[in-house]
Design brief:
There is one protein chain. This protein is of the alpha/beta class and 869 residues long. It is built from 36 helices and 18 strands. Among the domains are: 395-475, no CATH class; 550-675, 2-Layer Sandwich (Nucleotidyltransferase, domain 5), CATH 3.30.420; 683-865, 3-Layer(aba) Sandwich (Rossmann fold), CATH 3.40.50. The radius of gyration is 31 Å and the shape is globular.
């Protein structure tokens, strides 16, 4: 074949290769594979003899083959891609030009590093990426223009940072990414900088800082949009992963719903699509959308089978079985075939790699057999579940305890059931005691939810008020039992903990993908030993306080009374502690009270605006009074003989956290404080504080009346006023640290899916509840005006989590906040009355009771924590 024809074919192959690269970068893998195979066929169709043409042909052949190896791995797995690269590496030695040879080596070693990482060979992958960087930097040293070299260097640094993160080398990972961002920014590679910021977000997620990860993903999206480019789908998937980690299942589901149609059109053969569908199934299960969870899990399972990931297939199958089990247990009708199907799945799983999935499946089957009344079959199935080992996850430990307790109840052995529950809660306490963050402390309650519910059900049937009080305190609001630590500042410890978290994820991922874990486990053990040496338990939350005993509560109450509400199924009760007595009052339907609370809250929201037409005001006020009267009649009046006119400490349950108690007729003008548990209230009452400053903060965009912090400041001899640019997040956090009174007038957003992400809008962005909970010296009393941040998401174990509750858990003694919307003028008037009374010497609970009594329906504030702050 003439040289000119060969040159033409080579040029055509080069152009097709470029189109394949574009398709690859855009995520169109099927199109990319087709184009690259065509390009490879073109270069293979000639064998030039002319030295110049052959040199050009060799370079194109190397580039096409290298890219084809990477794309092939998307569908056939990393081993297939690595096999193709063996031939490519041999071809590079025939390239004469040393700079061109270095360029090709850098590109091929980068691809080889990617594939080695995909195969779980982390150290080897880092070695290949180190080699790629050496070749890229050699070209730079030889005088090649930096503009040509920055992009591959940035990509290699970003890839290597991912490997460093998986090995727990967090500092090295950050160093790589910071360098990548700096290089890309310096040389105008805005997309490269955005990609590196995305990787920084993934690193933050890996080490457990979800708010920082979400901020990074937002920065990345803004950068792409500023360039007029589509945001890569992987950024949306990363955000969904972060949202699921944070428990924001609704938002994660919305994010996945936005990207899944695009992925199905362009990535139908990739593992990423199956992973996205599995995430969607989990989000749906978390939000109780069981039909969607089943569909997504089924689709993910089919795709994972094509990929060949046995762990992924098992995980997707298990989600489907969880859905089937939940439906059957709720209905009370368990098909005979369901336990058998669950057991068949467990028995098909290979051991030991999928032993955990098999154990969970067997326990699901045991619960189903208990519900069918087949206690002997359930006992036999449980006998095949291995005893928990040191590394058995806590959710599996709790599920085993629950199975054993339910079996004991079915056999009429109540004492044995309570013993199982007690042992399970002890196990849970040990795990909780090792947690260092508020969301982790709270999250553990999920694992003991059904155990706690069963305990309350059994004890309530027994009718003992003191025994019920003790079980309630042991099972509810455990987050508030932990002493917040002050002055914790140990960067080395923080770095080691971040490394341990990252390595833990890497081990789970390697197990999931069937890769070796010995080296990762050895490194994890080493980092954990270092963390222990530095003080693993010196996290933000310290030692647990003991559960409050009735005698301690009685001694602190004095002339006050404590009312602790509880429910089991549809039974609502109140445990009343007054004087030296503990009494039990039965209060009827829990659902009826919950519905009245929800309706009252809706009515108060509708009544909030300042300038409603008078006829509408009369209608909404009448409806609100009707619901308040109903709640008063059900929740308060039956306790009148027990509590008299005493001040109250109220421990709500479930939907009763939304009750603005000062609105109820019997409690109007009566000082009352709301606490998540008697233990939490007792800790707040006993807390000691030094006198501090008064801080008044105004956020942006507030109506004039609500933002009049100058007027509030007139009630105090000295006050620090912060507004405009002076009310920035870092500045406000610094002022809150050690303040005696902090009044925050700012727009607030309550995040119901995970209320720790509730936030106040300040001049430079959101102030998250996560961040407020990290203060060294929490403000003694915090007033949250202009928002509904007394609202909580009620998590398992009656754990109320929100902005206000994060303040309480972090060590603030008292939080004043509204439970529903408040009109601008009503809010300003209520706050003026409150601060005037407070400055005159009234206790917070007294000052708030007087302020609410002026106009109860338009001032739905509550006093949280302690009324003494």
């Amino acid at each position: 074949m003439p040289s000119r024809d060969e040159a033409r074919i080579i040029r055509e192959a080069r152009e097709v290769h470029r189109s394949g690269v574009v398709a690859t970068c855009s995520g169109r893998h099927r199109e990319a594979l087709r184009l690259l195979r065509r390009a490879r066929a073109l270069v293979d169709s000639v064998d030039p003899v002319d030295p110049d043409v052959r040199g050009e042909w060799l370079v194109v052949r190397i580039r096409v083959s290298s890219t084809l190896a990477a794309v092939t791995a998307e569908a056939a797995g990393p081993a297939a891609g690595l096999a193709r690269l063996v031939e490519v590496r041999e071809m590079i030695d025939d390239v004469v030009d040393p700079l061109l040879r270095a360029e090709l080596w850098g590109s091929v070693e980068h691809n080889r590093g990617l594939l080695l990482l995909s195969a779980g060979l982390l150290d080897e992958g880092i070695g290949a990426l180190d080699s790629a960087l050496r070749h890229e930097q050699a070209r730079l040293a030889a005088g090649e223009p930096a503009a040509r070299l920055v992009e591959p260097i940035v990509k290699t640094l970003s890839t290597r940072s991912n490997a460093h993160g998986k090995l727990g080398l967090v500092a090295e990972a950050r160093q790589d990414l910071d360098r990548a961002v700096a290089l890309a920014t310096e040389h105008g590679l805005t997309t490269g900088a955005a990609d590196a910021r995305h990787q920084l977000g993934l690193l933050e997620l890996r080490v457990g800082d979800v708010p920082a990860a979400l901020r990074r993903f937002e920065e990345c999206e803004r950068a792409y949009r500023a360039l007029g480019l589509d945001v890569p789908l992987v950024v949306g998937l990363s955000r969904a992963q972060a949202l699921l980690t944070a428990g924001l299942a609704d938002e994660a589901g919305n994010q996945l719903d936005a990207v899944l149609p695009v992925m199905r059109a362009e990535h139908s053969t990739t593992r990423e699509l199956a992973t996205a569908e599995l995430h969607r199934a989990v989000a749906a299960f978390m939000t109780d959308d069981l039909d969607l969870a089943r569909r997504m899990a089924s689709s993910a399972r089919r795709r994972m089978r094509r990929w060949g990931c046995a762990t992924c297939v098992a995980d997707a199958t298990l989600v489907g079985l969880r859905v089937d089990t939940a439906v059957a247990l709720r209905s009370g009708r368990v098909p005979r075939s369901l336990p058998r199907r669950v057991l068949d799945f467990a028995e098909e799983l290979p051991a030991p790699r999928l032993a955990q999935q098999a154990a969970v499946a067997r326990m699901l089957a045991a619960r189903l057999e208990v519900r069918r009344g087949n206690t002997d079959a359930a006992a036999a199935i449980l006998g095949a579940v291995p005893r928990p080992g040191r590394l058995t996850p806590i959710d599996q430990r709790m599920l085993r305890r629950l199975c054993r307790a339910e079996l004991a109840v079915a056999r009429g052995r109540t004492a044995a059931a309570l013993a199982e529950i007690g042992a399970g809660l002890t196990d849970l306490e040990r795990v909780r005691d090792r947690m260092g963050g508020l969301e982790l402390l709270s999250g553990t309650a999920l694992h003991g939810r059904e155990l706690a519910e069963l305990a309350v059900h059994l004890v309530l049937d027994g009718g003992s008020a003191r025994r019920l009080f003790s079980w309630l305190e042991r099972t509810r609001a455990q987050t508030y039992r932990y002493e917040p630590l002050v002055g914790v500042d140990n960067p080395e410890l923080a770095e080691r903990i971040a490394e341990v978290r990252s390595l833990t994820q890497s081990i789970h991922q390697a197990e999931h993908e069937g890769h070796p874990t010995a080296a990762l486990r050895a490194r994890h053990a080493e980092r954990l030993r270092e963390a222990n040496r530095l003080g693993w338990h010196s996290g933000r939350w310290g030692r647990p306080r003991p559960v409050a005993a009735p005698a301690e509560v009685m001694a602190r109450l004095g002339e006050r009374a404590l009312v602790s509400y509880a429910s089991s199924e549809d039974r609502l009760v109140a445990v009343v502690v007054v004087g030296s007595a503990v009494r039990l009052a039965r209060l009827g339907s829990a659902e009826r009270a919950a519905e009245s609370a929800r309706t009252l809250n809706a009515d108060l929201n509708a009544l909030a605006p300042d300038h409603l037409p008078e006829p509408l005001v009369q209608v909404m006020a009448a409806s609100a009074r009707k619901q308040a009267d109903r709640l008063d009649a059900q929740l308060v009046q039956p306790l009148a003989e027990l509590v008299g006119d005493r001040e109250l400490v109220i421990v709500p349950t479930g939907a009763l956290y939304a009750v603005p108690w000062g609105v109820l007729p019997t409690l109007q003008a009566r000082p009352a404080v709301v606490a998540p548990s008697a233990t939490a209230w007792l800790a707040a009452e006993r807390a000691e504080y030094r006198p501090g400053r008064t801080v008044l903060v105004r956020g942006p965009g507030l109506p004039a009346a609500v933002g009049e912090i100058d007027k509030l400041g007139a009630h105090y001899s000295t006050a620090r006023l912060m507004s405009g640019k002076g009310a920035a997040v870092s500045t406000v956090l610094r002022e809150l640290d050690g303040a005696e009174i902090a009044h925050l007038a700012a727009h607030g957003i309550h995040e119901p899916e995970n209320a720790l992400f509730s936030r106040l809008e300040l001049s430079d962005g959101p102030l998250y509840a996560h961040e407020v909970a990290g203060l060294d010296r929490p403000s003694r009393q915090v007033v949250l005006a202009a928002c509904e941040l007394a609202l909580n998401r009620i998590r398992p174990g009656d754990e109320p989590l929100g902005f206000a509750s994060a303040l309480l858990a972090g060590g603030s003694q008292t939080v004043i906040a509204p439970l529903s919307r408040v009109g601008d003028q009503a809010c300003a008037a209520a706050m003026d009355d409150y601060h005037r009374s407070l400055a005159s010497g009234a206790r917070p609970a007294e000052a708030l009771a007087d302020a609410i009594a002026v106009d109860p329906l338009r001032r739905p504030f509550v006093c949280l924590g302690s009324g003494q702050g």
